[in-house]
Design a protein that fits this description.
Strand content: 15-25%
Shape: globular
Oligomer: single chain
Radius of gyration: 11 Å
Strand order of the largest sheet: 1-4-2-3
Largest sheet: 4 strands, antiparallel
Structural class: alpha+beta
Distance between the termini: 16 Å
């Protein structure tokens, strides 16, 4: 897991997540299809490169408890590990 190399799409997503951004903004900024973005976000969450937050940004959502079928309801931000990967 420590040797995971991010792909160009994941790098593009991470570059958008220096500050917390909702799903829709990431979708618009990266130009990815919703399914592609969803898959890449799930990978980035699972490898600890980003964190998911409730839409109101009031608290972090554990990677084990975010709703992967409704990622449009979450906001995302790069972790320090994700920022180093850029």
């Amino acid at each position: 897991m420590n040797n995971y190399k991010i792909n160009p799409e994941e790098r593009s997503i991470l570059e958008q997540l220096i500050y917390a951004e909702p799903f829709g903004n990431i979708l618009e900024e990266t130009g990815l299809q919703a399914g592609e973005l969803r898959d890449n976000l799930i990978n980035l969450i699972n490898f600890g490169f980003i964190e998911a937050y409730e839409t109101d940004n009031s608290h972090k959502t554990s990677p084990h408890f975010y709703d992967s079928d409704n990622l449009q309801n979450f906001t995302f931000r790069a972790t320090s590990k994700g920022l180093v990967a850029i």
